[in-house]
Amino acid sequence: MSSKVIYHKHHIVPRHMGGTDNASNLIRLTIEEHAEAHRKLYEKHGLWQDYLAWKGLCGQIGKDEIIKEKQRLNGIERAKQNFTKPKSAPHRKKLSSLAKNRPIITCPHCGVNGPNNQMKQWHFDNCPSYTSIVRTSGPCSEKRKIAISEARKKTKKIACIYCNKLVDPGNLKRFHNENCKHKP
């Protein structure tokens, strides 16, 4: 019984490097030769497209993994292109106006003001006042209770717009202003 040899068409200059589908740019290779050609291209140029082709043709990675990796790497490349692409004057003006109109919020732990997205992304979880009063585990010792009390004393107090009671920012949001029992 004779085994049938399967041939692939290989782009001498790969399409991802600007090669065309012209007959002059195509050669006929066995699967093993095709994998070896992509291995050599990968070693010479270091492009992920050749790496995936080489590993896929060798059977070291499956089709689903190749598709997933292609989507991931194409997304990274597009993001890099968009980030480094020069912005037009109208686009820069729009970005500037968006930055100026960002809502400013106050940290409920220490009273620091900042843009909404930045405060939520990094300040709230890393706020020195918050991290110093958060209980790690178990019941509070007397020493810990004193530390919490001292941290709360340092927190800037704000008056409720309805009852004028001075409270820390966390309680202001929770029990006062819009939730105040003295609200008419």
Mind explaining what this structure looks like?
The protein has a two-stranded antiparallel sheet. It has a two-stranded antiparallel sheet with strand order 3-4. The protein has eight helices and six strands. Strand 5 (158-159) and strand 6 (166-167) form a beta hairpin. Mean pLDDT is 80; it is low at 133-137. The chain starts with 6 loop residues before the first strand and ends in a 9-residue tail after the last helix. It folds into two domains: 7-84, no CATH class; 102-179, no CATH class. With 184 residues, the chain is mainly alpha-helical. Helix 1 runs antiparallel to helix 2 and helix 2 (48-58) runs antiparallel to helix 3 (63-84).
Question: Which key phrases capture this entry?
Answer:
mainly alpha; 2 domains; 184 residues; two-stranded antiparallel sheet
